[in-house]
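Field log, afternoon session.

UNIT: design team B
ACTIVITY: writing a sequence onto a fixed backbone
BACKBONE:
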C-alpha cells in the first residue's frame, strides 16, 4: 500500500497523463478510453457491445482483468497503467448496468451496418483446396475469436480465420454446404464462402442476438434477437434485410426470442419466445401448401391466428414460455421446456397445440437433445444443465423411461446413426473434465473418458460416416481430440484456442439423426 502522500502524487500524475482525475465520473472515463471502439452508446463498434446481456459469458472479475491487461490476439489494449483500480471497478459497474432506455436497432441501423467484402460473382465456384467439401468441419475457437476449417478425412486444418467477437450457437450451412453463416452475441451475421475461404458479407441484425437459421431452400436467413425484440429476415445471397418482425403478442406485449430454427419439411422458420406464451411459425414457401404441410387451416385466418401475404406468421398459443426446444426428425412435434418449469411440453405442429406434458425436472437442455431407435421405438435423450442426469423419453407416449445418472450436469449430447454410442459431457462441477459414453442399446454408461484432467471436455461432433468423434478441450491451451468412434481410442490431437462447437458439413446439411439442427 502506498503512503497517502505518494498515493496523492500517483493519482494526480495519472490524472495529468490521462487528462482525467480518478474522481472523473465514470461516463467521462468511458467516453475517453472506451467509446472509440465500443461506441459512445455502448452498442459496440470495432469492439463488442458493452451491455449486461452481451457480457453474460464474462464474469465481472474477468472484465476488470481485460480492462487492466488487455485481451490477447485482439485489438483490446491494456489500460492498467492509465486507470486506477477504482476507475476500472467503476467501468466494470458501468458496463454491467443496463442502459436507461432500450437501444434502437431498426431497419436503418441494420442497413447501415451492411458490408459486402467480396462480390460473389468475382469468386470461383470450386474449392481452392483439395478435400471432400462435404466432410469439412468448422471449429469455433472462442479463446481468440477465430474459426478453423478442418479436413474431415485427414483431420488437418485447411484455414484459420478471425470471426466476430463471441460467436454463439451453431453456424448454419447453406444446403450445398458451400456457405456458412455465423451469429455473434453482438448481432453480427457473417457469411463465409467455404470454397474460397473468404468472409463475403456481414450485417448487424441486432444488439444481442440468440441465433440464426437458414431456410432449407437456402434462400433466407432468419435471426432471433434478445435485443431488440425482433426476428430479422435476410436475403441469404448477400444478407440484405428483407423484413423485420416485431415480436409481440396480440396485446402488444413484446418478447425476446429464445431461438429460431428451420423446419425443412414444413418450409418454415419456427421461433420459441421467452416472454410471451406463443411459438411462432413463419413460412418461407412462395405458396404455402396447406395440405402437404398441414401448416394452414382456413379457420385460422378467420380467427386471426395467422397473417396472409409473404412470410405469413402463424401463432401457436401455449400455456407456458419456451426457453429451449427440440424437434422430432420429421418436424411434426416440437418438444420444449421453460427454464423455471418442472416439465416439458410437446406441441404438435400440425394441429398447432400442446398435446402432452413430459416429466422433466431441473433444467433440461433440449437444444442439445438427440434421438435414436431403442427397442423398436424412437427415444429422445436430453442432458440437464442443473442435474447430473440424462433423461430418456419414449417419443410415442412421451413418458420418461429412464434417468441415467451422470457425474454432473451436462451441456451437449451427440451421436451418429452409424455409432452404437451417445456421448454426453459433464460440463459443470468438479467432473467437468469427464465425458460419458452411453450404449444406445442398453441405456447404460459404458465408459467415462477423462482426456485432460482439470480441463473442461465438452461438445462432440462426428465425421460424415460416423467413424470418428471429435471432442473439445475447452481451454486456451486446448485441443480438438479425434477419437475412433468404435474403439474409443484417441487418434489425434489438434491444438486449438478454447475450441467450442464443431460442425460437420454433411451431418448438418442432411439434418442427420444424432446431431443438432
Ligand atoms: Fe448456448 C447453442 C442457448 C450458454 C455454447 N445455445 C445454443 C442454442 C441455444 C443456446 C438456444 C441453439 C442455437 C443454434 O445453434 O442455432 N446457451 C444458450 C443459453 O440460453 C445459455 C444457457 C445462456 C446464455 O448465455 O445464452 C447458453 N452456450 C452457452 C455457453 O455458456 C456456451 C457453453 C459457451 C458460449 O459460447 O457462450 C454455449 N451454445 C453453445 C454452443 C452451441 C450453442 C457451442 C451450438 C451447439 C451445437 O452443436 O449446435
Amino acid at each position: 500500500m502506498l503512503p497517502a502522500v505518494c498515493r496523492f502524487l500517483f493519482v494526480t500524475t495519472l490524472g495529468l497523463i490521462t487528462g482525467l482525475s480518478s474522481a472523473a465520473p465514470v461516463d467521462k472515463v468511458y467516453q475517453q478510453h472506451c467509446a472509440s471502439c465500443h461506441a459512445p452508446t455502448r452498442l459496440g463498434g470495432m469492439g463488442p457491445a458493452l451491455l449486461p446481456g452481451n457480457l453474460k459469458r464474462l464474469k465481472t472479475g474477468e472484465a476488470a482483468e481485460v480492462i487492466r491487461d488487455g485481451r490477447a490476439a485482439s485489438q483490446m489494449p491494456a489500460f492498467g497503467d492509465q486507470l486506477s483500480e477504482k476507475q476500472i471497478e467503476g467501468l466494470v459497474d458501468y458496463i454491467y448496468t443496463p442502459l436507461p432506455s432500450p437501444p434502437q436497432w431498426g431497419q436503418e441501423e441494420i442497413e447501415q451496418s451492411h458490408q459486402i467484402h467480396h462480390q460473389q460473382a468475382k469468386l470461383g465456384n470450386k474449392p481452392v483446396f483439395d478435400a471432400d467439401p462435404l466432410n469439412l468441419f468448422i471449429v469455433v475457437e472462442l479463446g481468440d475469436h477465430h474459426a478453423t476449417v478442418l479436413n474431415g478425412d485427414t483431420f488437418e486444418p485447411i484455414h484459420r480465420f478471425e470471426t466476430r467477437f463471441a460467436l454463439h450457437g451453431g453456424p448454419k450451412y447453406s444446403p450445398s454446404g458451400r456457405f456458412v453463416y455465423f451469429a455473434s452475441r453482438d448481432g453480427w451475421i457473417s457469411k463465409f464462402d467455404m470454397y474460397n475461404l473468404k468472409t463475403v458479407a456481414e450485417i448487424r441484425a441486432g444488439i444481442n442476438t440468440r441465433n440464426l437459421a437458414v431456410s432449407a431452400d437456402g434462400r433466407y436467413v432468419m435471426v432471433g434477437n434478445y435485443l431488440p425484440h425482433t426476428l430479422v429476415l435476410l436475403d441469404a445471397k448477400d444478407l440484405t434485410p428483407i423484413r423485420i418482425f416485431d415480436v409481440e403478442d396480440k396485446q402488444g406485449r413484446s418478447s425476446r426470442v429464445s431461438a429460431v430454427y428451420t423446419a425443412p419439411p414444413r418450409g418454415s422458420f419456427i421461433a420459441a419466445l421467452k416472454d410471451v406464451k406463443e411459438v411462432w411459425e413463419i413460412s418461407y414457401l412462395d405458396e404455402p401448401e396447406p395440405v402437404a404441410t398441414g401448416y394452414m387451416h382456413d379457420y385460422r385466418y378467420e380467427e386471426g391466428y395467422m397473417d396472409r401475404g409473404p412470410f405469413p406468421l402463424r401463432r401457436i398459443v401455449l400455456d407456458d414460455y419456451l426457453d429451449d426446444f427440440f424437434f422430432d426428425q420429421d418436424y411434426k412435434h416440437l418438444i420444449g421446456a421453460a427454464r423455471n418449469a418442472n416439465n416439458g411440453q410437446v406441441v404438435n405442429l400440425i394441429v398447432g397445440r400442446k398435446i402432452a406434458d413430459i416429466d422433466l425436472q431441473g433444467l433440461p437442455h433440449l437444444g442439445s437433445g438427440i434421438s435414436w431407435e431403442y427397442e423398436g421405438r424412437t427415444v429422445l435423450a436430453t442432458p440437464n444443465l442443473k442435474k447430473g442426469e440424462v433423461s430418456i423419453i419414449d417419443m410415442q407416449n412421451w413418458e420418461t423411461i429412464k434417468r441415467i445418472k451422470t457425474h454432473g450436469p451436462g451441456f451437449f449430447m451427440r451421436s451418429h446413426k452409424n455409432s452404437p454410442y451417445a456421448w454426453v459431457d459433464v460440463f459443470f462441477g468438479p467432473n467437468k473434465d469427464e465425458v460419458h459414453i452411453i450404449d444406445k442399446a442398453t441405456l447404460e454408461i459404458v465408459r467415462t473418458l477423462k482426456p485432460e484432467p482439470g480441463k473442461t471436455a465438452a461438445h462432440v461432433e462426428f465425421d460424415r460416416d460416423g467413424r470418428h468423434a471429435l471432442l473439445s478441450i475447452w481451454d486456451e491451451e486446448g485441443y480438438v481430440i479425434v477419437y475412433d468412434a468404435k474403439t474409443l481410442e484417441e487418434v489425434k490431437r489438434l491444438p486449438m484456442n478454447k475450441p467450442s462447437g464443431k460442425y460437420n458439413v454433411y451431418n448438418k446439411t442432411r439434418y442427420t439423426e444424432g446431431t443438432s439442427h
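LOG NOTE: The pocket of heme D is lined by residues 56-57, 142, 168-170, 210-211, 259, 367, 411, 459, 500-501, 516 (CB under 6 Å).
NEXT ACTIVITY: expression trials, pending approval
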